[in-house]
Specification:
By secondary structure, the chain is α/β, with parallel strands linked by helices. The strands form three sheets. Strands 2-8-7-6-5-3-4 form a seven-stranded mixed sheet, with helices on both faces. A three-stranded antiparallel sheet has the order 9-10-12, covered by helices on one side. It has a two-stranded parallel ribbon with strand order 1-11. Helices cover 36% and strands 14% of the residues. It has two domains: 114 residues, Aspartate Aminotransferase, domain 1 (Alpha-Beta Complex), CATH 3.90.1150; 217 residues, Type I PLP-dependent aspartate aminotransferase-like (Major domain) (Aspartate Aminotransferase, domain 2, 3-Layer(aba) Sandwich). The longest helix is centred in the C-terminal third of the chain and has 24 residues. The chain is globular, with a radius of gyration of 21 Å. It is built from eleven helices and twelve strands. The structure holds 4'-deoxy-4'-aminopyridoxal-5'-phosphate (PMP). 4'-deoxy-4'-aminopyridoxal-5'-phosphate binds next to α3. Its EC number is 2.6.1.9. Homodimer. InterPro entries: Aminotrans_II_pyridoxalP_BS (IPR001917), Aminotransferase_I/II_large (IPR004839), HisP_aminotrans (IPR005861), HistidinolP_aminotransfase (IPR050106), PyrdxlP-dep_Trfase (IPR015424), PyrdxlP-dep_Trfase_major (IPR015421), PyrdxlP-dep_Trfase_small (IPR015422).
Amino acid sequence: MSSWKDNLRTIEPYVPGEQPDLPDMIKLNTNENPYPPSPKVQEVLDQYDINALRLYPDPNSQHLVDAIAEYNGLNSDQVFVGVGSDDVLAIAFMTFFNSKKPILFPDITYSFYDVWAELFQIPYVQKPLDDHFEFVRSDYYGENGGIVIANPNAPTGVVQELDALRDIIDHNRDVVVIIDEAYVDFSDHSALELIKEYDNVLIVQTYSKSRSLAGMRIGHAMGSAELIAAMNDVRFSYNSYPMTRLSVEIGAAAIRDKAYFEEMRKRVVDTREWTKKELTRLGFTFGDSKTNFIFAKHKTIPGEVFFDELRKKHIFVRRFGNNPRIKDYLRISIGTQKEMEILVQELEKIEKMH
Ligand code: PMP
């Protein structure tokens, strides 16, 4: 007897960090920004005429696309926008990874990549990072169906220099190379300039981290006009109006406020560097994070102990207990300076107890 259950797409979904809602919590588990969005966002909301919400939004999200293009010195046909970079990445996977050859990405990276590959039935191979969480470049030289690189990588925080990326791309001119720059604004450089040289490189960025707009869901991709047109064809084949009217206007206002962005970014980076010194003092080791989080392991105390004890104090960090290579690491998002001072005090207490 046949059953509808025989035809289900069964999949183990990606599990995001928890979103507890406790008044006294210190939430350092999903790499959100501890500071509010630009005051220009408040202005948009204050002046918004809700009557506009009767109408469907612009399918092309042109105001937002144009603002991102202008900010990055690109033409508007080189910019794609989506509902967070998760949406952008998922569409990129669907659009570009249709070969029978496996796509490649590291064993330790954003753990949504393998979920999308499973969902869209894309073959994939995960290449182990070396013991310092660095890419082994030669692993990416062979034939493949495409490449995804988070740079800086997550959850390690480690960044690849442009010449390493260039080398990988030079060996892969016949497939699309996606560079996921979710955390790039906390590092020293973007690979954006590579899209001028390579028509097969797609740079993906997000408003969720450096622009404090995780709740608004805005992400974008930049690449050759051909790549962007192909993504738009796929996107318009299942949803004509992905971006709300509000997210378009809020996104455009936020990206134009460069001064505020620079100030907030500097605050997060300064606190990150302070936290690194404190973690070292407490006996943690970590790669040189260029993100808004630190991926750290204590020299003697298991990660689970810190995770559980912090949780009791309503301090939330992230741990990837299912992956034996990184089970003792904590991924600690950078909060306000005050929040990080409390975190350090609590870590110190836990260390003394064990
Ligand atoms: N890429 C990486 C590497 C991430 O860590 C995240 C955040 N979970 C994303 C993409 C997606 O972010 P968003 O959908 O909020 O833009």
